[in-house]
Amino acid sequence: MNFFSFSVVVIYLLIASCCTRKNAGSANVSDNDAGYETLIVIDYSDLSGCGFIFLRNDSSKLIPENLHESLKHNNLKIKVKYTVTNKPNICMAGKTIDIIDLKREDKPAQ
Length: 110
Fold this sequence. Notes:
Layout: H1 2-18, E1 37-43, E2 52-55, E3 61-64, E4 76-84, E5 95-108
Parallel strand pairs: 3-5
Antiparallel strand pairs: 1-2, 1-4, 2-3, 4-5
C-alpha cells in the first residue's frame, strides 16, 4: 500500500509540474516584453537611506538591490523583469526586488 500511495503522489507531482499558466493580461505586450514591467528610475537619495528606486505606473515604489551604476539616472524609463525579495531595507519606501533582466528605453520619462 505504501508503494501505491508513493506512486500516486509522484504521478500527481509530475502532472502538476507540467501544467503552465497562460499570461491572461498580456494583450498589449509583445513577445519580447513578456514578463517585463515598465518602470521609471528616480533619485530618492533625499530620503534617508534611499538611493535610486523604481516608480511603478500605480505610483508604488520598488527598491532594486542590484541596480548597475550606469543606470542610476533620474527619470530613466526602463523595462524590468524582477522577483520580489521583501528583504528588510533601511529605505522602506517600497518592496525590495532582485533584477533578473533589464531593458533600457533610452528616452526620459514624462
